[in-house]
Every structure is written in structure tokens, then in C-alpha cells.
Write a structure and sequence with these properties.
By secondary structure, the protein is mainly alpha-helical. The protein is built from six helices and three strands. Helix 2 runs parallel beside helix 3. The protein is elongated and about 65 Å long.
Length: 140
Amino acid sequence: MIEDGERRQLRYVNAGHIARATLEATAYQSREVVEAMDADSGVKLESLKVDGGMVVNDLLMQFQADLLGVPVVRPKVLETTALGAAYLAGLTVDLWKSRDELATHWKVDKRFEPQMSPSEREKRMSRWREAVARSRNWAG
């Protein structure tokens, strides 16, 4: 049950706030995946190539670059998973000679460089982790 004070606070939240929170949560979660990959592989990420529907959002791509502290590179062709399947099929029937030939088809649309300071990046990640920890066991 929402109480009167909570109802007044909710009046100031709009769809834009929810959309922004969704985009930011995506970037925070991606950072956690990258940290796990770094820890498991011992290989530090130097840049992140992205694809898919959400990458059209410049705010998300810039925030992702800021949280990761590395450039985020968006290709001209956003659905590279489907394109990769088509390339594989083309290689199978000798439409293309090699994977090196296919690599020449990949073009950059936009590169997002990190702009956030390392201290701000870590402060935000710490607050994210605190929020995640507080949210555990809410539903009972």
C-alpha cells in the first residue's frame, strides 16, 4: 500500500526518469560483466565494440564508456549478430574468400570516449553496488 508521503514523491517521477534508470542500470550491469571477464581472463578490456537495438542511444553509449573507462565503438551495421550469420553462410559457399576479407566490411559509426574521472566512476559504481545490496530480499 502506497502511503500519502510516498504518493507525493511518486508524482515527480515520470517516464523519462524510468527510461534513464533503465539505461543506466544496463551500463552498470555491463560493467559488472566486464569486471568478471577481466578477473577470469586476466585480460584488461581496451575498448568495447557494441551492437543491437540499444546501441542507437548515444546517452547509453557515452555512459557505458564513462563507466568502463574505455572507448565504446558502435558499428554502422547495428545488428552484427545477424550479419555474422550471413557472413558465415557466405564463407561456407565461397561467396567470400576469407575472414580477413569480411573484416574489411566492418565500419565505425561512432566512437564514444570516456569523459568521467576515475574517482567519479568508482564513486558511482560503489553507490550502484550499495543500491543492489539494499534491494535484495525486498519481496517477501
